Amino acid sequence: MGSIPYVRDMKFEYGVLEPVTDSVRRLVCENPGPFTFYGTNTYVIGRGRVVVVDPGPAIEAHVDALLAGLGKETIERIVVTHTHRDHSPAAAALVAKLGVPTAGHGPHGAGLYERGAEVEAGADLAFHPDEALQDGDVIEGDGYSLEVVHTPGHCSNHLCYQVRGERTLLTGDHVMGWSTSVISPPDGDMGAYMASLERLLSRDDTRYLPAHGAPIEQPAHFVKAYIEHRREREDQIRACLEQGIDTIDAMVPRMYRGVAKVLHPAAARSVLAHALHMRDRGELTCAGEPSIHVAWRRA
């Protein structure tokens, strides 16, 4: 596999709201884990009257630390990159305390739940934004301006936000420095994810601030490595099929040698996303309803 230039060194202190750029401050939630790294980064944009991006999970101590760090400053709006449980649930506590409006692309699942589809277990189904944001929208306030960038793939309602004037992009889980993102169908879509990565290469952002981990200071180089990594995963699927390994649950131990087994179920979801993307391009087919257990073959 090619090498992604991971950024895994991160200096921070739990419970402390600290500056990471001239316009952005960060508070790291104490929810570390195999999918969150050190925890969820909650970002505050502006001074005095501010916008909060990704308030985090429903952890009271994190909400209290955010309010303590802001002191007499006023939260004007709460926005989310997407609706997974480590990103958006704390919005409810802030709304209850302060009555501030929320914004995001929309509720989780893009209608999939309403149609009876089984979507990933980590969704925050309670979040319904007061303001539905679309690609290209601009969020402005006293001393801040954010451009909305719709980046579906990790999930259908995923947004990034550029801090205009700094060319700093808050990337949520779309691009992270410490790990690749899990793409879990049906709401996670590998075709959409790859297109969203390619789109970032056409932008002028000079720094990424992900929702987990440290800043990424060479974003274009990093995104190119991400794209190459995904293409290599497809090569691994082809190699497995050539060796007669035709189910995803059998492919994962070979494709993810050296990766902790606790991560294999999530890896299988991403491999399924790759297989579906390859099927949509006419390269693969499967014997029955697509899943990690059915046999896949070259079309």
In short:
By secondary structure, the protein is α/β, with parallel strands linked by helices.
Topology:
Blueprint: E1 18-19, E2 24-28, E3 41-45, E4 49-53, H1 60-70, E5 74-79, H2 90-98, E6 102-104, E7 131-132, E8 138-141, E9 144-150, E10 159-163, E11 168-172, H3 190-201, E12 207-210, H4 219-242, H5 248-255, H6 264-280, E13 284-286, E14 296-298
Parallel strand pairs: 4-5, 5-6, 6-7, 11-12
Antiparallel strand pairs: 1-2, 2-3, 3-4, 8-9, 9-10, 10-11, 13-14
Helix pairs in contact: 3-4, 4-6, 5-6
What do you see in this structure?
The protein is built from six helices and 14 strands. With 299 residues, the chain is of the alpha/beta class. The protein folds into two domains: 18-226, Ribonuclease Z/Hydroxyacylglutathione hydrolase-like (Metallo-beta-lactamase, Chain A), CATH 3.60.15; 233-298. The strands form three sheets. A seven-stranded mixed beta sheet has the order 1-2-3-4-5-6-7, covered by helices on one side. Strands 8-9-10-11-12 form a five-stranded mixed beta sheet, with no helix packed on it. A two-stranded antiparallel ribbon has the order 13-14. Strand 1 (18-19) and strand 2 (24-28) form a beta hairpin. Helix 3 packs antiparallel against helix 4 (219-242) and helix 5 (248-255) packs across helix 6 (264-280). The two termini are 25 Å apart.
